[in-house]
Every structure is written in C-alpha cells, then in structure tokens.
Amino acid sequence: MDGKMRATAPGRTEAFLPSPTVQNHAANLSLLSDGTLACVWFGGTMEGMGDISIYMSRLTPGSDVWSVPEKMTDDAQKSEQNPLLFNAPDGKVWLLYTSQTSGHQDGAVVKRRISDDDGRTFGEVSVLCDIPGTFVRQPIIVNGSGAWLLPVFRCIGISGTRWSGDIDTAAVLISTDAGASWAIHDVRDSIGAVHMNIVPLGGDEMVALYRNRFSEQVLRSRSHDGGRSWSAPEATDLPNNNSSVQAVRTSDGRIAIVYNHANASMSADRRLSLYDEIEGDEAETISAAVQLSGRKAVWGVPRAPLCLAFSSDAGETFGNRIDLETGDGFCLTNNSKDGLNREFSYPSILATTDGVIHVAFTYFRRAIKYIRLSSGAF
C-alpha cells in the first residue's frame, strides 16, 4: 500500500492510501484551497480501542502518490473516530472528530483542531460539543444566510445497558457566529436515522440522506428553511445495511450517492453489536434494550457491494447504479489483524467542477482505498 495511483479501467484510477496501522476506517475526503485532495480517517488495532487515532494523507496537485499519513490525534485513553474536514469561509480548515471510551458511543463528545495555513498544520485540541453521545460523520454545510450546519447523530444510552444504537436520533448543530457557539436542533421522528448527510438544492431548499439503524432502506428528509427544521425521515428506494452512506451534488445537478446495496432482508447474518468483540457478553442488556425501545438495531448485514447511484429528482428515486467493489462483505467481526473482515464500507464522495467523482472507503478494515472516476466512467 504505497499510495501510488494506478489506472485499472478506462476513466478509473485507484490507490490504497499508506497507513502505519492494521485497522483503517471511516474516510472523509476534502478539497483544500490549493487543489490538494485530503483524506482523513481513523486507524489503530480495532474500533473502540484506546490506540484508535485520526490520520490524514494528501494528494497534491500534479502528484500521483498519496503522502505518508500524519497522525492528527493521540489520546491514549480515548478512541478517536469519524473525522471530517471543513473549509471555513474565512480560509481556515477545521478537523472534527469524535472521542469516546471503549465502545461507549453514548459518552462520546466532538472535538476539533483548526488550521490557519490551509491544512498544513493544526492548532490545539478543543471541545466543540460536550453533549454526551454526540457523533459526527458528514461535512459541515454553509447555508445561504451564512449559518454553519453540522449534521450529527445522538447515540442515546438506556440506563443499565450498554449502547447498541437502538434509539439513536438525528440532529443539526447550527452556528450563526462562525463556529464560536452552536445550538442543537433535533430532527423530528428520527429514531434509527443516523449519519445525516445534507445536500443543498439551491436557495433554502435542502435534502438529507441517512443511514438506517434497522437495516432497511436509506432514509431521506427535506428542509425548506436553510436547514433549521426538517421533515421526518422517510424510506427511499435504496437499501441500507446499517452502514454509512454519503451523497453530493454533481456539476450537472444530480445527486450522486455511494452506499452498500444490501439490507437485512437480503442476509441472515447478524452480530450482537458493533463493539461485541471488546465489550463482552451483552445478552442480558440487549434483552432489556428491546423491551424499552421496541426495535433493535441490526448489525452484521454484509457490507457489499459498494455502489454508486444517481438521482435527478432531489433524492426521491435513484438509478444508473454502478458497482464499485463486489465481494461477500463479511462484517461479523471488526478483526483486521487476522484479516477476517471483508467489508467495503463508510464511503466518502466528492464531485469536482471538472466532472470527476472522487470516492474513498474502507477496504476490509485494513486500508482506505481511493477511486477517481472521470465523466466517461459513470
């Protein structure tokens, strides 16, 4: 995994980003102001462990090799996860990520570092949101009035049980003072709707797409007031396996989404929870959670194939599906050391003005893979 870009098909080039860690997951791409393509992700031994930290690699203009990754965080007591980069209107670059102890996502907070030199160096770590259980995954959006919208999901624990995602909800953190302060706005009727991904449509119109904790369909909601309030999430025609999706508006006005074309109806594979390998026996607490929440988050559905699809009606329907990676997507374990996990997951997508689509994603939890598609390839 030398970071070298290689052509693999007409209009398609690929690279495996270099990494010093055995597990690599949850990539997010960003285009910096000088044209550098940056990718951040988390790496370590296994998700939830104290050695999980944030890493960043760059592909500079004219280069065909991704840089040796820089370690961006290093708290030995915390699992630091789900990073994202934000190019603020004032030219600063923000790095956001979550910080938690072990598998306790309901105790996570959101932290940040800020760069004054276009992402070359970053300042000290500070806390952006200290509401326990607040998680990020998707980029900040600036609406037409200049407000910053940070979509979050709220990992809600049930007293006496370990977190397992059964009653997680969606919300938006909104700042009207360039990130100095934030107010939280919950998305109504959003139990099970997480990883909210906001896509501006023009003016005050926005659409959001969501991961579904119950492994049914990708969910969708609308905002008509610049992202302050949202309709209740409803099912789209795309399946979802309780794994991340990401969508973006392309230069021709369509919405492009990267996702796993799979859900619980397509597989009987199940695991107790995301962190069952590090949290121990959860049988009794799961029973209690089911009694309290009514529905149980579904984990373990294969994370494959990884697909690209397009919508011309603001995300109401999707078509023109392309399989980017195919395989069995086995994810009943997060074990990377022994090569047991075979998922293609947690995609990030960018659409640049030259008509190119950029995708980065988890490959077997061993590496972050990057794919560049020219307009003739999709």
TrEMBL record:
Domain of life per record: Bacteria
Boundaries of every Sialidase domain copy: 35-359
Classification via Pfam families: BNR_2
Species classification: Bacteria, Pseudomonadati, Pseudomonadota, Alphaproteobacteria, Hyphomicrobiales
Gene3D superfamilies associated with the record: 2.120.10.10
Region (Disordered): 223-245
Alphabetized InterPro entries for the sequence: Sialidase (IPR011040), Sialidase_sf (IPR036278)
Species: Aminobacter carboxidus
Name of the molecule in the record: Exo-alpha-sialidase
